TrEMBL record:
Domain Protein kinase: 22-311
Principal subcellular localization: cytoplasm
Organism superkingdom: Eukaryota
Name of the protein in its database record: cyclin-dependent kinase
Keywords: ATP-binding, Cell cycle, Cell division, Cytoplasm, Kinase, Nucleotide-binding, Phosphoprotein, Serine/threonine-protein kinase, Transferase
Upper lineage: Eukaryota, Metazoa, Ecdysozoa, Arthropoda, Hexapoda
Length: 367
């Protein structure tokens, strides 16, 4: 079979453009399977984009199927312009390196100046206010629910892969590890950054959408703490760090046919989550504990999370009509008095003025 060339990978029936249409300005960072650059659209110099450069190994049949699947997934997501998913604006081809058997592709995304990790760092003491944390989590879970309702697992949720616009909108990014799932997937490669990795992934068990919920719980705790909740140095150490806070699970709850034995870990009693996550209200504790359950099947789902009293008590109410086909998630009704322009996103000013102090959070502190 002849090898497919860049021109054979079409975008809506049109061959891919050359990446020379974009001028690289600076490197943003290294993401899953690629390097991301800040770039300018040469045809529209005022248009700044994020250019993700990926090297695709070529087989005898051309571009590998998994690469085409990832691009197809991103394009499929983008056509619905979900407010909490980063926009894929263009796909371009670079050079084909015959000797290295590689093709360079460029994924062009909307540019957002900061990720959530940077946003947290830039917020002055005492840190993010409880109302702002609630809004960030609602938007994060809204994006995750959109993925899960369409059989997509992100598999690498962490503050560095969440973008925050100057208007306060949270967008899921870096889909290099994202995958559509069929029932439960067997772990085939390392997924999810260690500190946000769920117990079933650490143990090499089958996993599904619940891995993203665990990561969301870790992110929620970090928003309050301004530092990660579980900071292990290895898979075993990560599990032990989890057990030190949540308690060592019972032997009955330990999964079968895993390399790590239950009796290899020290017995730790569970501790109060409030001792490790300051300023969190009682409803927040309940949601966090439901996201951080050891057994994946006992974890709360993204849809259930959006209906949790932690959000509903502040006026966040998802539409009751949840769709399961690839379509935009239903509108989410923001608290009374906020903008109806986009789900749970109200007009906001610059990041440094986004309710960073807890002093004006009297409603949440009453919980």
């Amino acid at each position: 079979m002849p090898r497919s060339s860049p021109a054979d990978i079409e975008q809506g029936g049109t061959p891919l453009r050359n990446h020379d249409n974009y001028e690289e300005l600076s490197m943003i960072g290294v993401g899953s399977y690629g390097t991301v650059f800040k770039a300018r659209d040469r045809s529209n110099p005022s248009n700044i984009v994020a250019l993700k450069k990926i090297r695709v190994p070529l087989s005898e049949d051309g571009v590998p199927f998994n690469t085409l699947r990832e691009i197809s997934l991103l394009k499929q997501l983008d056509q619905y312009e979900h407010p909490n998913i980063v926009r894929l604006l263009d796909i371009c081809h670079g050079q084909t390196m015959e000797r290295e058997q590689q093709l360079v592709l460029y994924l062009v995304f909307e540019h957002v100046d900061q990720d959530l990790a940077t946003y947290i760092e830039r917020c002055p003491p005492p840190g993010l206010g409880s109302a702002r944390i609630k809004d960030i989590m609602f938007q994060l879970l809204n994006g995750v629910d959109f993925l899960h309702s369409n059989r997509i697992v992100h598999r690498d949720l962490k503050p560095q892969n969440l973008l925050v616009t100057n208007g306060g909108n949270v967008k899921l990014a870096d889909f290099g590890l994202a995958k559509t799932y069929d029932f439960e997937m067997r772990l085939t490669s390392v997924v999810v950054t260690l500190w946000y990795r769920s117990p079933e992934v650490l143990l090499g068990c089958r996993y599904a959408t619940q891995v993203d919920i665990w990561s969301c719980g870790c992110i929620m705790a970090e928003l309050f703490r301004r530092s990660p909740l579980f900071c292990g140095q290895s898979e075993v150490d990560q599990l032990d760090k989890i057990f030190q806070i949540l308690g060592t699970p019972s032997e009955e709850d330990w999964p079968e046919n895993v390399n790590l034995l239950w009796n290899a870990f020290q017995r730790h009693p569970s501790s109060l989550i409030q001792d490790h996550v300051p300023e969190i209200c009682n409803d927040g504790v309940d949601l966090l504990k439901k996201m951080l359950r050891f057994k994946a099947n006992d974890r709360i789902s993204s849809a259930e999370s959006l209906h949790h009293i932690y959000f509903s008590s502040s006026g966040y109410t998802p539409s009751m009509s949840l769709l399961t086909s690839m379509s935009p998630n239903p509108s989410l009704t923001p608290p009374s008095g906020e903008s109806q322009g986009s789900p749970a996103v109200s007009p906001r000013s610059t990041p440094n003025s986004l309710s960073c102090s807890a002093s004006d959070e009297s409603a949440d502190k009453s919980n």
